Sequence to fold (650 residues):
Amino acid sequence: MKIVILGGGGMIGHKLAQEIKRGKVGLKNNSVILHDLFFSNDSEALGEIRVGDISKPGEIESIAKERPDLIYHLASVVSGQAETDFDIGWEVNFHPTWRLLNAIKNEHLASAGGYRPKFIFTSSIAVFGGPYPEKISDDFLCAPQTSYGAQKLICETMISDFSRKGFIDGISMRLPTVCVRPGKANLAASSFFSSIIREPLNNMEAILPVRDSVRHWHVSPRSAIGFLVYAASLNFDKLGARRSLNLPGVSCTVAEQIEALRAVAGQEAVDRIKFVEDKKVTRIVSGWPENFDPVRALGLGFVAEKDFSEIIMAYIEDDLRPISN
Amino acid sequence: MKIVILGGGGMIGHKLAQEIKRGKVGLKNNSVILHDLFFSNDSEALGEIRVGDISKPGEIESIAKERPDLIYHLASVVSGQAETDFDIGWEVNFHPTWRLLNAIKNEHLASAGGYRPKFIFTSSIAVFGGPYPEKISDDFLCAPQTSYGAQKLICETMISDFSRKGFIDGISMRLPTVCVRPGKANLAASSFFSSIIREPLNNMEAILPVRDSVRHWHVSPRSAIGFLVYAASLNFDKLGARRSLNLPGVSCTVAEQIEALRAVAGQEAVDRIKFVEDKKVTRIVSGWPENFDPVRALGLGFVAEKDFSEIIMAYIEDDLRPISN
Fold:
C-alpha cells in the first residue's frame, strides 16, 4: 500500500509515520512517502523523505501522478501565520489542495475510474465561529472567523464534492486543539494550553496569558494520531453525504487543566505557572469553541480521552523529556 | 456611483439593471456596466454592455481595475450544468470569484485601503444538504450535495474572509428558488415549479414531473430583485461576523401552488397541468430544502411574498405575455 503524508515533517506527521512503521495502518508492506518543507534527522527511518514546497506549481501534481492508495493531507501554515501573511495563507492552505484534487481527478479519469485514493484531511475546529451554543452539535453551521478556518472549510467543501463524484474517497477531520504538544512553545495563540502543563513537568516556568475561567476543547497528540490511524480503516460510506466530522475531545477550563496538573505532579508544578494577562491572546481565544457534542464521530468509533488528567498522562508516557534550549 | 453587474445578461441581471435605471439603487447618476457571455437586444438601454467570459484569465481582473463602487456578482453556470460538466462548473463558478477578490484586494492595497467596494453575491439554498430539520434555521450547517452548491459555499467563505479583512464589504445572499420565472422552460430540474404556473396562464399545457406533496421554498423574481436592491442600501456591519444570509420566501407544496393557481385563474388553468412522473427529477428534488426560518434576514428588513398567490400575482403583473415558440 502506497501512503503519502503531506506535512510529514510536522509533529503530527512524524508521530503518524511512526504508527505506520509499527504496522498500525493498512497492510504490512507499506511504502511511505513523507513530504514537507523541513524534516528532523530522525525522519529518515520512517519512509522516503521528499523535501518540497506544495505551493510551487507542479509539486503537488507530481504526488498525484504516483497514484498513492492513501493520502494524509496535514500540510498547512498555522492559524497565526495565515492571519498575518494573508497571501501565504491562501497560497499554502487553499490552492495546493485544489491542484491536488484536480490532479487526482485527472488520474481517476485516465485510469477509467480505477484510481480513487483514500484521502484523509486534517481540518480544524477553526471552521466554526461564534456565537456558539453551549455545545456545538454535528449540524451547527461553519462560520470561520480566521483565514485559516476559511481555508480549511473551503478544502473540506472541495473534498466532499470530489468524494461525492467518486474521484476520491475523502474525509475531513476537525481536530480539537492538540494538547499537550511536545517540544518548545511556538507563536500560536493556543500555545499556552500546552506550555502551562509541559513546562512545569519539565521544571520550567510557564506564562498563563488568559484567565483560568477560559474553556476550550482538547485532544492529546496520541488520540489525534489514533483518529488518523482509525480513519484509514474506516469505510467512509458510513459518513453518508457529510464528509466532515467533528472529532471527540475533552472540554475543560484552564482551572481544570491546572487542577489535573496538581493531581498528577503536585503543588510544586502548579507554582511554576505565572498569570500574566495578554489582552491580545485573551481576545483571540474568546472567539474559539468551548465544547462539542460529537455524536457522529463517537458512533463511528472515534475515541478520545475522558478528562484532562488522561491527556497529561499521555504526554508523560509518550513525550516527557527535557526541553533543549 | 459605478456599478458592475456580472451576469448582467441573465433574467435576474436584466431585471436588476432595470431597477437601477429607475433610480432604485444608490445615487441618481449611476454608471452601470453589464457583463455577460450573451445579451438580449433590449439590454443596451440599461447600461454599458461588456461581452466576455469570466473564466478567461484576465477578464475578471480587468473589472477590478476599474474600481467599481458596487459589484453585483450573479454570474454562474446553473446547477444542472455544473453537475454534468464538472470542470466547467469549477472554472466558472469558483476560480473567477477567487481571481476577482484577489484583484480587488490588490486594488485595495494599491490605494492604501481607500478602495473597498460593496460586493453582493447571489448564493443559493443549494449550499444546504439533507437530512433537514422541519425548518432550516440561520445556524444550520451547509453540506452541499451538488457541485453548484459546493462552489457557492466556497465563494461565500472567501467573500466572508475578504470582508473580515476589510478588502471588500460583502454579503452572500442565499436566494430561494426563483419562481415564477418568465420565458420558456429550461433544463433545470427546478424548471417545473415555474412552468406549472406560467404555461397554464399562457394557455399552454405543462408537465408536472413530481407528486404534488413535494414542498419547496420559493420567491418571486420581483422579491429576489427587491433583495438585491435593498442590500445595496444596507449597512453590512449589521450582519456581524456572518456574511451569508438565508433570505425569506414562501414554503408550499406543489398542491398548494396548484390551489393558488385555481384561485387566481380557475379550474381551466389547472386542467392544463398533466402529471407525468419523472423519477430522476423526483430523486433530485427530494434532496432539496423545504422550509426555512430566516429570522436574521427578516430582522434586517428583507421582505418576500406572504403566500404563493402573491407570487402568481407578481408574475401576472410583471411578466405575463405570450410565450413565443
